[in-house]
Amino acid sequence: MRHLGYTAVLAALLGSAAAAQDVTLALTNAVNTLDPHQSASVGLDLSVLSHVYPSLILRGPDMELHPSLATEWEAVDDLTWRFKLVEGAKFANGEPIDANTVAWNIARVTNKDNPTRISSWFTPVTGATVISPTEVEIKTSSPYPALPAQLSMFMLLPPEWAASHDPASETMSGGPYVIERVTPGDSITMTRNPDFFGEAPAFEHVTFRTIPETSSAIAALVAGEVDFINKIPPSELPRISASGVAKGGAVPSTRSVFIKFNTEKPPMDNKMFRQALNYAVDKDAIVDVLFGGEAEVSNCQVMTPAYFGYNPDLKPYVYDPEKAEEMIKESGVDLSRPLEFEVPTATYLQGEEVAQAVAQMFADVGVQTEYRAMEFGAYMDKYRKAHDLGQMSLLGQAWPTIDADGLLTLFKPGDQYAYWNDANFGAALEAGNATTDPDARKAAYADAARIMCEEAPVVFMYAQPATYGVSNKVDYTPRGDDWVRAFDMKPAG
Amino acid sequence: MTFFKELARSKVGMAGFVILVLFVAVAVLAPWLGLEDPTRGSLRARMVPPDWWGPHPLGTDEVGRDILSRIVYGSRITLMVAGAAVVAGGIVGTFLGILAGYAGGITDRILMRLVDIQLAIPLMMLALLVVAALGPSMVNVVAVLALTSWIRYARIIRGQVLSLREREFVQSARAIGASGWRIMLRHILPNVLTPALVVATLELARIIVMDAALSFLGLGVQPPNPSWGRMLADGRTYISTAWWAVTFPGVAIMLTVLGVNLFGDWLRDYFDPKTRSAR
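ok -> structure tokens follow
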């Protein structure tokens, strides 16, 4: 505690406390790009950019979809969605935000010759048709019930401005805030946009600061230098609340962490061996000890209860090292060589601790691993570009639409991310995709989850908690997805 | 035995020597000290505070491994990596230093320019680049540390050789027709071993710190194998709730480097004729 006190005094001397109408949010990484179509990182790039660019729909802190530029939307038929837009909305340079803007932006991300980072979200979308300046229709080649949810991650660029400017390094506001200054790798400051078409945000100025180190972030929060931090180990939360100036907390997130098997490499093609490894991991110990009970054990599926398509009937593999050992013997796999275990560093909350704990548990049942820590970028290159994952790796996945269509697609046969080929699972996903009837979809995805549990292409572990620390001066509604938005916050009291 | 008599007269040198001997002894005897497995712990015993007479005298780390055991086994890895790097760098550097000094001419100029070029590149940066490109493994770390180290030997040894080659015993060996290789190995090498040894001791300290820095950045030996730098990196998140996870490995690094430096300083004075006559 004394250490903290000194840091607090020092930090208070260096930086003055923020005024009531200002808010400072800490991010663990620096923003990669300012182009909202070239990043899929909700907790980072998209969070910052959603202060600047308008979206048709926003997902609020209550996890529901709320109107933003679109005032209402409906599925006209299985293949058409119609959106009504706010009238008279404008970008800061005077360009109108209307149906043409939407059509141009949809065209930009569905351009097959020049795909963007988020183009894969819109694979079924064939195009957008302008009905009137305030009405637009989006057509899809197959039913796409998750489209409105997907559009909550999609932001609109001003078409005319984009013709002569590079959106990767410049911005033109049409959202609640205008970017004032970008200090690469350090901070981004914004001021309220007086011409914003929606409700004016509560804070006049917003600053995003990059603080990668957890202990520095906590010290900055306690010193009043920043008002919001996240991704803190749960064991540090009481320390934040004890400071008296801020409080720490956790809510279940939508991100499941698991050990992904590359079933294309032996011995991971052996189903009994994969199941045995599921029995070998003490999920409860990880949740209780590493996360102080703040995480949730996964119920034998990568979806959390918040997902559409969650199967409530599945139960986790029980922790039974003896059974695991027997099954490994019975499976007859060759364990003379250690299995590759790839771990992206500084990516998941306490990810390296979890990975080392799991490696210990595997060793307890006689499975030796070769631990390979790698930088997240290098890991993603192996995962996505090279298609060359190790036999096992630590991975956490979430799908911001909180829909099985999306998260489970990452395991679909033929998908480059799958590393697993199960025809029955693929058929169940197809069935869920073929209709917009919610009950039929739910049944199909529950079936897919059941197959995945049985086939065990991963070691199901836990849903990562979304931890945060927030200043007592700020009113914040905790949320389980990754969005960090100043316009969802208010001055307290 | 004059060596130990001299050493006993210097408190500082003796302290360094004792620390160094302790460090080597602990590293060599680690498996017989009856410690827990440093790579396996119980998750349920996570971040147990130090208990001097209990099962975990220095506490446990963030996945429940015994910190004392990790420091002791970590010393083996430090000793192996630093020792191998010092020996490899020393052999290469001494050899090239003798070659440059004795051969002179174009050989000398090429080798010394190489040294200049390498001195212009920050060593840590060079090490980071090479290890990041080749991938972290013990062999790569040893190779890169040796690479950052050979230049110091080469420079100092070359200077010694420049004066040695003009001495009578070298001149006479040459007069009776000894080959260049024979003169370098039989007549010059034994005379430059002492300065090489002094450089080696001081290099050892520098390399231990650099090895810790590399493993702090995740480029050293891979977990779960214990390494002091890695322990610092893993424990720093919990610095205010579990001080022992970073403090003890930090103390281990500091004490070892201090000891090696003290002993190295004394060794240099001991072999230096000027300071020797002053004592």
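Chain B has one domain: 11-29+66-278.
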